[in-house]
Amino acid sequence: MSVRYTYKNKPIIYAIRNRITGMMYIGSSFIPSARFHQHLISKTNSNFELQQSISKYGLDNFTVYILEVVDFPSTLLYNERNKFLRKREQFFINQYPTVQLFNSINSSAI
Fold first, then answer.
1. Contact assessment for residue 3 and residue 64, using Cβ atoms and an 8 Å cutoff
2. How far apart are CA 28 and CA 59, in angstroms?
């Protein structure tokens, strides 16, 4: 998983896509290596529907995409960065119909 190390300390917006169903989870993180570990290895603090899909289809059928490496405006205060990151995440979530996202479905749709 080289993406874990390439973006280790860079704030990012990412997608984890099931290549069989086309379903995606879109998220953001200040520490991507830790977040990917949560989603893909330890399966803690992760999206429930994403985890069910990984269990059903196997991790080999998922691809991680980096949608954006987030550069914060220089005028942004440290405590405002989380809000900015979430706003960028929501921008990408809004680009897809909710039926294509694990972010907003219930487990019966898998």
1. yes
2. 20
Positive or negative, the Cα torsion across 45, 48, 54, 56?
A: positive
User: What SS3 class is residue 83?
Assistant: helix
CA diameter of the chain = 45
pLDDT tens figures, 45-77: 889 999 999 999 999 999 999 999 999 988 999
Q: Residue 93: which of 26, 40, 47 has the closest Cα?
A: 26
Name the band, by pLDDT with cuts 50, 70 and 90, for residue 4.
low
pTM of the model: 0.86
Q: Which residue type does 18 have?
A: N
Length of the chain: 110
